[in-house]
Prior knowledge:
- The chain has 315 residues and is an alpha+beta fold.
- It has helices at 13-27, 42-52, 64-74, 99-102, 108-117, 150-160, 171-182, 247-257; strands spanning 2-5, 33-36, 57-62, 87-92, 120-132, 137-142, 145-149, 189-195, 204-209, 211-215, 237-242, 268-273, 275-280, 285-288, 291-310.
- The protein has two domains: 2-123, Rossmann fold, CATH 3.40.50; 127-305, Sandwich (Tumour Suppressor Smad4), CATH 2.60.200.
- The protein contains eight helices and 15 strands.
- It has a 15-stranded mixed sheet that branches.
- Strand 8 (189-195) and strand 9 form a beta hairpin.
Amino acid sequence: MFFIINPTAARGLALREWGKAQREVRKRGIQFNEHLTSRPGEACEVTRQALLAGEVCVIAVGGDGTLNEVVSGYFDEAGQPVNAQACIGLLPCGTGSDFCRSVGLKNRKTALQAILAGHNRLIDVVKIELTGLDGQPVSRYSLNVVSFGLGGEVVRLVNSWRSTWPRWIGGHARFVLAALQALKTYRNHPVQIQFDDQPDGASDCYVFSNFFVAANGRFAGGGMKFAPLAELDDGLMDVVLTDRAERFDILKELPRIRFGAHLRNPKVRLGKSSGVTINAWPPLPVDVDGETAGFTPARLTIKPAALRFIAGNPS
């Protein structure tokens, strides 16, 4: 078992929680290795090296961003698992830690219990091809939610506050406050979304939007239920779109998103697909699992049952 710890996650919370978890792992007599990251992208590299060296279980200790790097390291340059029999796990200690909610990990205690028990299930992964922050093409992987437009700006703000805001201001409050700040400059733009596999043959969707998500998991933004019908193992993304939603519409829906009730709004659409291509004019910011990733145009493709993940209950 190999633990990769982000010591800066939640302003040091991950490191403190790892100290407690480490004692429990030792008490069980489980052999393990550990690595503390010191820079962005390091968890991806270390995961790939560990899997190549024969590790069969890699655990991210941190938030959704740390988990995202570990998941990226699970795949090689050709997009294939380095070791398809290996599994990935999470000890959630981040600002939002949203993905754990979709896999039955209610808190750090249940997450550690699942890790020690070793229960795992096959889940889908989303591959994203987009324009990186440096303007060059880049590929990323997502277990949870890919957000476009307003969501990308919200993530940028939340991440910029990490080192200055006290820890007692929780993830949900931070994301709501960031949304209110980002709404000050909110403007809709023309967006084209091409769906791969629509039964009625209508593959192209045109909306006037600046806020939509493509989801594998259900939660993002510190517990906001953006995609209440998403499943991790159905081979499909849930694409939740707004069309001509203005600032007041977004403000009105913020409390309802927490419970997934926003899908009732006539300005919100839900589509399901194994692949989508997104263009917007001008390009919209994209965030992947709570981390700023780049800009549209973007191509998203589901890789069904591509990763073994340690979940809260046996499957």
